[in-house]
Amino acid sequence: MTLDLNLRVVRTNAEVSGPSVLFIHGFASSGELNWERSRWLKYFTDAGRNVLLVDLPGHGEDPRRNEGSWAPSQIRQALAAIVMEFDEGPVDVIGYSLGSRLAWEFAAFNPDLVEHLIMGGPGAGDPLAAFDLVQGRANVAAGEPINDDYTATIMKIAQAEPSNDISALFELIEAIKSEPYDPAAKIPSVPTLLVAGDQDDLATTLPRLRRLLKDAGTRNEVLWLAGRNHANAVTSREFKEKALAFLAS
Known about the structure:
By secondary structure, the chain is of the alpha/beta class. The protein contains nine helices and seven strands; from the N terminus they run ββααβαβαβαααβαβα.
């Protein structure tokens, strides 16, 4: 059964200037938090782009709307179903953090559905692989301390948004872990833009992604945002401007 991802279709009020844009948010965020509050939706709809805005499983207003597997392969199938149902041709795809990992795989497995790929805050490693679910669940259930720095950091991110369902996020982490990320296994063939803050510790392996793209013959560009980190790169106007210019190239 294909996952029923929460979807908002936001139509432009201007003359359509290019393919629709599929936005994929990061972990412990949502379509609204990641893209609407940071004004990506307005920026793109004002520029003549229709937007497909999804909430990943475990996220958004109805985090448990999907039963069954939440593994990345199932999310890819759900995204493909959305694109084929709502658009006559390929879309441009923009992902951030976990959304970048999913966007890389979506574009690699569905080149006929993707025109351009933009990845924000990306890395060559699995962003959730190192999370210690045992410690995370024990912390929530009984207040036990977390002695793993990475797990503590992710927990802080997850708990920063009061509306997050932490147990649902744990279920997504478990599903993500079931299919480890290996960007070299299948590489996108569509033009790709990699964007990260130069203070983003999670994007230090971005150059490996670029090497994979170059070796595969995929056209690619990189933008480093001065003074930005993983948390605030997505709010950068420079990021938005570069993204729109890249999609028009």
